[in-house]
Amino acid sequence: MSTELFVRHRGLLTEVAYRILGSAADAEDVVQDAWLRWSEVDAEEIESPRAYLVRMTTNLAIDRLRRVRARREEYVGPWLPEPVSTAPDVAEIAGLADGVEFALLVVLETLSPLERAVFVLREAFGYSYAEIAGILGRGEPAVRQLARRARDHVQERRPRFDVDRRERRRVTERFACACTEGDLRGLMELLTADVTLVGDGGGKAKAPLRVMTGRDHVARFLMAIASENGVGRFLASIGAGDLTSIGMEIADVNGGPAIVATAGGRAVTVISLVVADGKIETVYLIANPEKMSRITASGTSRSA
């Protein structure tokens, strides 16, 4: 009975933890910790197992976020959330296709752990302020204040992007073609004048150590890593393996289209774009091999 109850809610718990932490690996560790604690209680004495498990998982995730943020201060270069495949047939975390836009996860990194938990529970899962107060062990007025502060912060920093998935996919496909074909002019036409590129290599891949800004700088950097020689060096630097089978595909990542570069049949780089009015405002490039384990390559990549 105890195991059955936990399995029934495991997907929800993983979703909550992932949204709070921005890391699927950390989320799975938190859910495992929750299972160990759950296995020690008498489930028959719990009035609402779902509420109990969400409360426990949320607080474990908050504690873990406080610890990992201290380690992230020593991270080499910018730290970006861990991308997750969200196509219906490959998603490893149930329900992740909704509410986990990569750009939103980046903004959530700027919230305090408590603000982030309140925002996630309120905006993603629809919990009432009273319910969140019970989960966090705080007064309802304090929770309302946290929610207002978090919401204002997110609205101020959340990038404006096209909600039309077809338009976003069209721009993503044009971006991929321009990069693979070495079309500098075509790439420049897709980028806004003040476009930014944020790379996450974690010291294990050749990603920029600082945020790059400006159409010319970003375009020329992308041309350098996407040229034939650049791709080989770029993939080799992260131990890609078989460089004779390099590919690139458009895949569903964090609920939106993204470019997944593959080598030897496995994902090695993910590029997620923030698109507004048909133009690319931000390029997120994730190349840390430790963040590729939740990305599923279809095996139908076109040559890059």
Provide an overview of this structure.
It is a single chain. With 304 residues, the protein is an alpha+beta fold. Helix content is 49%, strand content 16%. The chain has eleven helices and seven strands. The radius of gyration is 20 Å and the shape is globular.
Our measurement of the CA-to-CA distance between the termini, rounded to an integer number of angstroms, reads 51 Å
Radius of gyration: 20 Å
Counted beta strands: 7
Shape: globular
Helix content: 40-55%
Average pLDDT for all residues: 87
- Uncertain spans, ≥5 residues at pLDDT below 50? 235-239, 299-304
Strand order of the largest sheet: 2-1-6-5-4-3-7
Helix count, per DSSP?
Answer: 11
Question: What features would you highlight for this structure?
Answer:
7 strands, ECF_Sigma-70_Domain, transcription, alpha+beta, 49% helix, disordered C terminus, transcription regulation, RNA_pol_sigma70_r2, 16% strand, 304 residues, sigma factor
